[in-house]
Design brief:
single chain, mainly alpha, Helix Hairpins, 2 helices, about 0% strand
C-alpha cells in the first residue's frame, strides 16, 4: 500500500496494460501501412495486365487493317502468330503476377485484422485495469470519508461527555 492507501500493483498493472495497448496500436499501424503498400502493388499489377491486353488488342487491330487493305502474306501470318504468342505469354505473366500480389494483399489483410483484434483486446484489458484502479480509489475515498465521519462523531461524543461531566 502507498501513503494514500492504494495498492501500487494497480498502478503497475495499468502502466503495463498501457504499454501493451500502445504496442498493439503501433503494430496495427504497421500492418495498415503494409496493406496499403500491397494495394498499391496490386493496382500496378492490374495496370500491367491492362497494358498487355491493350497492346495485344492494338496489334490485332493493326493486323485487321492490314488484311483489309491488301491482304496478308503467309510469312506475315506466321510473324503475327509469333507476336500473338509473345503477347499471350506477357499477359499470362502479368496475370500470374497480379494473382501473387493479390494473395499477398489477402495475407496482409489477415495480419491487419489480427492486429486489430489484438488492439481491441489490449484496449479492453487497459480499460479493465483503469476501472479496477478507479474502483480502488473510490473505495479508499469512501473509506476515508467514513473514517472522517466516525472521527467527527467520536469528537462530538467526547465533547458532549466532557461537557456533561464537567
Amino acid at each position: 500500500m502507498t501513503a494514500g492507501g492504494a495498492d501500487p500493483r494497480l498502478g503497475q498493472l495499468e502502466a503495463v496494460r498501457q504499454r501493451r495497448q500502445e504496442d498493439a496500436l503501433r503494430a496495427l499501424q504497421q500492418q495498415r501501412a503494409q496493406v496499403m503498400a500491397g494495394l498499391r502493388q496490386a493496382e500496378a499489377a492490374q495496370q500491367a495486365v491492362q497494358a498487355a491486353l491493350a497492346e495485344r488488342a492494338a496489334f490485332i487491330e493493326r493486323l485487321r487493317q492490314g488484311a483489309s487493305q491488301g491482304g496478308v502474306s503467309v510469312s506475315g501470318l506466321l510473324d503475327a502468330q509469333g507476336w500473338q504468342g509473345a503477347f499471350d505469354a506477357r499477359i499470362a505473366r502479368a496475370n500470374a503476377n497480379l494473382a501473387t500480389v493479390l494473395d499477398e494483399v489477402a495475407r496482409r489483410r489477415d495480419a491487419f485484422d489480427e492486429a486489430r483484434r489484438a488492439l481491441l483486446r489490449a484496449q479492453a484489458r487497459l480499460d479493465g485495469a483503469r476501472e479496477l484502479a478507479l474502483r480502488e480509489r473510490r473505495a479508499l475515498r469512501a473509506g476515508a470519508g467514513r473514517r472522517e465521519d466516525e472521527a467527527i462523531d467520536e469528537a462530538a461524543a467526547r465533547a458532549w461527555h466532557t461537557a456533561r461531566h464537567a
